[in-house]
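Title: Request for sanity check on Bcr/CflA family efflux transporter prediction

Description:
We are preparing a figure and want to confirm that the structure record we downloaded matches what your pipeline produces today. Could someone re-run it with the sequence below and paste the raw structure tokens into this thread? We only need the token string, no images.
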Amino acid sequence: MTLRLLLILGGLSAFGPLAIDLYLPAFPAIAQSFATDSEHVQLSLSAYFIGLALGQLFYGPLADRFGRRPPLLFGIGLFTVASVACALAPSLEWLIAARFAQALGGCAGMVVNRAVVRDICTPIEAARAFSQLMLVMGVAPILAPLAGGWMLLLGGWQVIFVFLAIFAGVFGFLVFFRLPETLPAHLPPSRLSSALGRYGRLLKEPQFMFHALTGGIAMAGMFAYIAGSPFVFIELYGVPVEHYGWFFGMNSAGFVLAAQFNSRLLRKRTPLQLLKVTTLLFMGSTIALSAVALLEPPSLWPLLVPLFCCMALLALVLPNSSACALAGHGHQAGVASALMGTLQFAIAGVVSALVGTLHNGTALPMTGMITLCGIGAATMALLARRVERAQQAALQLR
């Protein structure tokens, strides 16, 4: 994969983290602007997750039928317009609806991103590419809350969405002029009418589903943290809004470093082999996090250590589970990528909403949901290994 292509795909990967993390420090300000509370503002985050989940189902078949570029350009255009609508929102209901539309546009990059990687990479190369793209997913959350905090102080929360519109416009230009079409020419265009059937067959394929759910449930743990951290950091432990990004960024730094370490591990291990260990370690770190939260420490620092471990281990789970799920689906990379993304963000939407619903003035709703996600991800990985062993045994008998 060329550096230019990697940078463009990295920018497309940043749409999600930026649209989510950039406005997190603004939750209290948005709540004040609309005379509500942070828990109701969290609904705009849940709406974004739901939009990401539903939108990907449409982009997958379109990317397999018309190529990778046309759906991507449409999605970037929709994201740009919706970002402007967010900035002009006169009410919380308007903001929630605009965030939903923004997600419908932004998810195009997620589907096409994974499909492009699958188009041009082998499974091991794909895992390495996903690890490199995780660098963007890690760096963006480090910079985004910091930038969002300063934008909030300098021009109000509306400036955040104006920036997102400009960012999308720049990458729309780059995609139009610099991103080549990667849909293999030898593959016959898939029929849109067959999309439901292909989704149905994937849902019945245990190996794909267990790997997709491993990553999806693990990612939901990340979004439980994203949804709950503004309250836990700013309101519960008194972190100033402009400093929120530094605390958030420490955990993102662990994510970045682990993602690059994963690339090195892949030189000697397959993605499937790495998942055996990393999912168990991730589960252990989430259990430790809830154990610390139950003690209700008087300061934030005791929580930051297991949180750092959770985020770092996520970077060892997500790229490998994605590569395992997409392996063997090169002929329908768009549909497989879309279904995997839909599962991930549907689960993330439910989990992030539960963090707000279970709000009780402590860190336990956030940490408890992260722990459930850790246990769930490890369980799915275990089931995926059993399916793999059963398939290998069946092949030996033939």
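Thanks, this matches our download. The chain has one domain: 3-179+192-397.
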